[in-house]
Backbone:
């Protein structure tokens, strides 16, 4: 797992991330209060020199913020980012400067990350000027030409005076790579480097990245939403969901035998270009990744999880969502009758451990819940502990639940209650406990 | 300022307006000169002259049973360098309830083909040839007829739904407006009920019909967009990269919906995508486009099992899947359509290119039952020179 460090200091990993947390404050609108978006919420991993570590997740999972927090481009709220033993988290920019040369970033959209008013020669040479790595203009020019040739833009001279606008998508991404590597960094964070490219070009850019890794002894943090690319490129992978790793470990272990239901769903959803894939059976999670400002209680994946059971953290709003989902499946007549019974669901008083439906017929609502609750589209009713009626409505209460902590499962780390209840220290627990 | 002497402010006000206008114009002018992004903009190029007596001759009896029949369809744009035919002589049909996937690299003309089917070319764009939807010709129809038929006969689902929904209208208002434009006799109440049904069919809770587009997530918006597309029961749905901005799980959900719809509504589906995996899982047949032409078309399983055209082979080989251990790619880049190469358009990048590939252009021929490829490896059929010349532009004809 730890190949010889080409810069050979000692056994410390090149990068060690400990309990990294990045929260963004959100100011409420006209009515809402303020809150925080928990973009990255307690992530830890090590990256030995020479490794490719993959951060994989859907949009909104926090993978880009995590990548930027590592480079201190976004200021982490707490935790450590140790690069060769030095903690970078929260260093002021002036003290970051010496490290900037060794830490580089490749962006997703080459159009947005290249200055359209700079010629290619100026743009790629710019980092040399900033870090004072060139003796004079001729030296800078020589280094730029060398790097352009190295990334496959040759003859380099012919590119120097042109503008990024004149290049194709694949060439632009090569240019971005050239600029990222011209300072000879050790660690490169590549944020979706091929997502904007055509399939036929994608392979060539990935090939180039692997060649350059060997040649310059690079270590990559490879951010992607594409699992096939991740498997090909990465030695180890962390699957992110709403700011947390749900499963992480050796890439082959994860892909050959995924244990977290989320990883399984991701793998199941990939469309593969093979014959005979029509009408295959899929078990897809419902819905979409929720708002990181209001992550679900307990396990953050539980509202979508096809395997969720009573311990997973069901809460008030899950019941409301399940009733809404039921309404997409029933006839218009049933929908009208149930809408009349419950009233507008937005009016329900949604709490964490309970939800209260106001209505003039509380006994009927309670009876409906007892009858249809167990058959709702999600497993939310399994966690209901009591249904209390009073004059003005019905209150439904849920059992306490814990946020899953990491545990070792079949050779990788996973955070899932299916493999035993291990509460996460300092996690988002429901109820007493 | 006292009300009597308002005119003291008049001339200074005029001067300020003139000065600001002048500075803005100077700034714009400087931007035009300095900003490299704006170079070569503004020049539209020569007009593309109409074609005498072409199109409108597809056999009517055959097309009555198809959702769409395209014959010698071409779509072009005016550019300073002359006309560019992004779609250059394409024939295909889609039966009701059938889905055809259209794949190719970016710039191969697949989006232009989708736009041509709806006759929504950008300014300077023209379409030629014939497109029949439900047995009626679309090309050459008046703008009024077209407006009626878009939505009723053929609907388009875009890549980014947020840009196609009006942020100031609730979702159900979109439905009411669309339904009542096409069927003025429908009451608002009926239209809202239709909207609720269409939304529920897409998995959007009916209680959310009165929300605004920004209150929906990306996947929900795309469901709304599809519901809008199907509410008038069109015969053909054109989906242009409908899931490209979505995550893999939501993408899979949307593809399942599109697949189910085809069965329930019996509409034909043209699915435009760069992702071969999506085609393998959603489509009955696939058409591979390269440099404005269809180079291979046939049943999905046959083509994925045994691709015949070297371009299809290259595309499949360069796709990264979970089993990929070695990367492959197609060398080179697609040719400029301003000056398409003389022979086969793929010859320059083709590992099997022979001498004759640069002399004539192969025609689409059946190589296996239902599977057609345009390649000299399988057939000697050549596109007649007249057709090739048409692709070059208009100079020869004038």
Residues:
């Amino acid at each position: 797992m730890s190949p010889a460090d080409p810069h050979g200091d000692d056994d410390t990993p090149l990068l060690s991330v400990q309990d990294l947390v990045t929260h963004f404050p959100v100011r409420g609108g006209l009515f809402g209060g303020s809150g925080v978006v928990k973009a990255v919420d307690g992530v830890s991993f090590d990256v030995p020199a020479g490794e490719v570590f993959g951060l994989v997740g859907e949009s909104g999972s926090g993978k880009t913020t995590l990548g930027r927090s590592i480079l201190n481009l976004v200021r982490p709220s707490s935790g450590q980012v140790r690069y060769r033993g030095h903690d970078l988290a929260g260093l002021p920019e002036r003290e970051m400067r010496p490290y900037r040369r060794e830490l580089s970033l490749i962006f997703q959209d080459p159009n947005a990350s290249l200055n359209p008013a700079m010629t290619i020669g100026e743009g790629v040479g710019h980092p040399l000027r900033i870090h004072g790595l060139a003796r004079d203009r001729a030296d800078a020019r020589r280094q730029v030409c060398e790097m352009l040739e190295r990334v496959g833009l040759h003859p380099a001279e012919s590119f120097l005076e042109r503008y990024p606008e004149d290049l194709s998508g694949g060439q632009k991404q090569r240019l971005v790579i050239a600029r990222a590597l011209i300072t000879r960094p050790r660690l490169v964070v590549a944020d979706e480097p091929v997502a904007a490219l055509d399939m036929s070009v994608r392979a060539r850019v990935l090939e180039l990245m692997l060649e350059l890794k060997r040649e310059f002894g690079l270590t990559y943090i490879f951010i992607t939403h594409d699992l096939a690319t991740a498997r090909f490129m990465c030695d180890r992978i962390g699957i992110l969901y709403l700011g947390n790793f749900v499963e992480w470990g050796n890439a082959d272990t994860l892909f050959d035998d995924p244990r977290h239901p989320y990883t399984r769903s991701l793998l199941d959803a990939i469309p593969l270009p093979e014959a005979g894939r029509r009408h295959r059976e899929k078990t897809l999670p419902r819905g979409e990744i929720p708002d990181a400002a209001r992550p679900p209680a307990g396990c953050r994946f539980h509202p979508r999880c096809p395997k969720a059971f009573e311990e997973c953290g069901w809460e008030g709003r899950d019941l409301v969502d399940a009733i809404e989902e039921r309404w997409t499946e029933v006839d218009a007549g049933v929908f009208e009758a149930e809408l009349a019974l419950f009233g507008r669901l937005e009016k329900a008083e949604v709490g964490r451990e309970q939800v209260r439906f106001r209505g003039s017929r509380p006994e009927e609502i309670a009876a409906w819940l007892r009858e249809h609750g167990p058959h709702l589209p999600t497993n939310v009713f399994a966690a209901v502990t009591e249904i209390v009626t009073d004059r003005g409505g019905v209150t439904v209460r849920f059992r306490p639940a814990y946020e899953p902590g990491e545990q070792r499962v079949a050779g990788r780390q996973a955070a899932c209650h299916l493999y035993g209840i291990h509460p996460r220290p300092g996690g988002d627990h429901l109820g007493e406990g | 300022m006292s009300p009597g002497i308002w005119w003291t402010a008049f001339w200074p006000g005029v001067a300020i307006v003139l000065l600001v206008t002048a500075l803005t114009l100077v700034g714009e002018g400087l931007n035009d000169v300095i900003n490299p992004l704006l170079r070569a903009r503004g020049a539209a190029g020569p007009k593309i002259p109409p074609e005498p007596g072409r199109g409108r001759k597809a056999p009517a009896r055959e097309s009555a049973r198809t959702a769409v029949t395209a014959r010698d369809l071409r779509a072009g744009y005016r550019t300073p360098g002359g006309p560019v035919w992004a779609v250059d002589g394409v024939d295909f049909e889609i039966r009701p309830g059938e889905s055809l996937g259209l794949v190719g690299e970016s710039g191969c003309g697949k989006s232009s083909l989708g736009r041509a089917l709806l006759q929504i070319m950008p300014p300077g764009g023209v379409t030629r040839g014939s497109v029949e939807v439900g047995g009626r010709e679309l090309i050459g129809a008046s703008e009024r007829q077209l407006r009626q038929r878009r939505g009723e006969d053929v609907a388009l689902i875009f890549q980014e739904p947020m840009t196609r929904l009006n942020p100031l209208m609730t979702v159900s208002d979109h439905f009411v407006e669309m339904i009542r434009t096409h069927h003025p006799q429908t009451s608002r109440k009926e239209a809202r009920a239709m909207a609720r049904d269409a939304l529920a069919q897409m998995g959007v809770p009916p209680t959310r019909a009165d929300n605004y587009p920004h209150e929906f997530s990306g996947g929900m918006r795309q469901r709304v967009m599809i519901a809008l597309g199907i509410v008038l029961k069109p015969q053909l749905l054109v989906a242009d990269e409908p899931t490209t901005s979505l995550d893999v799980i939501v993408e899979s959900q949307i593809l399942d919906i599109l697949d189910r719809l085809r069965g329930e509504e019996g509409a034909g589906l043209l699915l435009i995508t760069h992702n071969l995996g999506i085609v393998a899982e959603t489509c009955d047949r696939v058409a591979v486009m390269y440099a404005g032409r269809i180079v291979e078309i046939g049943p999905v399983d046959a083509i994925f099992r045994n691709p015949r055209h070297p371009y299809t082979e290259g595309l499949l080989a360069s796709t990264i899947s979970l089993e990929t251990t070695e990367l492959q790619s197609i060398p080179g880049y697609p040719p400029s359509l301003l000056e398409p190469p003389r022979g086969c358009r793929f010859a320059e990048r083709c590992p099997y290119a022979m001498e004759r590939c640069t002399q004539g252009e192969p025609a689409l021929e059946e190589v296996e039952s239902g599977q057609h490829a345009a390649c000299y490896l399988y057939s000697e059929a050549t596109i007649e020179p007249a057709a090739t010349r048409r692709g070059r532009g208009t100079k020869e004809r004038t």
Remarks:
- The two ends of chain B are 70 Å apart (CA to CA).
- The first strand of chain B starts at residue 68 and ends at 77.
- Chain B has a mean pLDDT of 85.
